[in-house]
Amino acid sequence: MVLAPALFINHGGGPMPLLGDKIHADLTTFLRDEVKNHVTLKELKAIILVTVHWEENKVTISSGKHHNLYFDYYGFPPESYKYKYDAPGDPELAERIKKCLDKAGIESRLDSKRGWDHGVFVPMMLINPEADIPIIQISVLSNQDPEQHYKLGQALYEFRKEGIAVFGSGMSYHNMREAMNSRNLKKVVNKEFDDFLNEVCTAESEEKRRKGLISWREQRGASQAHPPRAAEHLMPLIVVAGAGRSAPGKRIFNWDMGGTFRVSGFIWKDE
């Protein structure tokens, strides 16, 4: 079996990538047309998708055969509340993931009821509109502890060896107040922090990656990119980087939204 990839994607603002929003055009194009250049979807047995929009005090794993959509956004056009994405769940795989996390000393629980939030269905409707790959949705931790998230990724690596991809859905920059206030500056406000993420995620040394991401809060520009106690959008990247294990990551997406802030996407494919 080919080692399945670990992929971090930026999902954008609510349903905007699906609504034809001009500011999101490059992101929509990447998700719809370019992810398939890096991920061979037909080879995947399933996707474990870690979503920023599900925060719990212990890792929570979707375990139903089917999950309805959870429209966890507000104030958008009526059509954005009528989307359907009918990919199956996989209760047996969910149970196996829980057992794997138990073995790794990571507290977890199963949830067969919660719907798939927009961190799941918005990017997946673009990446795989056929909806024929089972998805297991996994929460991030509300404590936003980077070491625990990296450890979660290390545990999930085992499933990559079975042809099960690990996706993380978040945003590598998420400070909407700063972004709004900086619209007229005509510069990217988070260049230093984005450069840091690229350096650690593509490092040849796994230890450099692990230490760098665990200490990310100490980096220049970190608190501007992800304000204190509001770093949830970075956690899926840390999980995916942990699932990369010994391989260096590769940046496959680098986008300046509105010319104000920069987000990056990464993939880990090889041993």
Q: Percent of residues in beta strands?
A: 15-25%
Coarse structural class: alpha/beta
Which sequence of strands runs across the widest sheet? 5-2-6-1-8-7
Low-confidence stretches: none
> What is the average per-residue confidence, as pLDDT, rounded to a whole number?
95
The biggest beta sheet, please? 6 strands, mixed
Radius of gyration: 17 Å
Cofactor: Zn(2+)
Domain Extradiol ring-cleavage dioxygenase class III enzyme subunit B: 34-247
GO molecular function, one term: ferrous iron binding
InterPro entries: Extradiol_dOase_DODA, Xdiol_dOase_suB
Q: What is the secondary structure topology, with strand pairs?
A:
Layout (H helix, E strand, L loop, with lengths): L5 E5 L14 H10 L11 E11 L2 E4 L28 H13 L4 E4 L6 H10 L7 E7 L4 H15 L3 E7 L5 H6 L9 H11 L4 H9 L7 H4 L9 H9 L6 E8 L3 E8 L3
Parallel strand pairs: 1-6, 2-5, 2-6, 3-4
Antiparallel strand pairs: 1-8, 7-8
Helix pairs in contact: 1-3, 4-9, 6-7
GO molecular function: ferrous iron binding; oxidoreductase activity, acting on single donors with incorporation of molecular oxygen, incorporation of two atoms of oxygen; zinc ion binding
Family: Belongs to the DODA-type extradiol aromatic ring-opening dioxygenase family.
Protein name: Extradiol ring-cleavage dioxygenase class III enzyme subunit B domain-containing protein
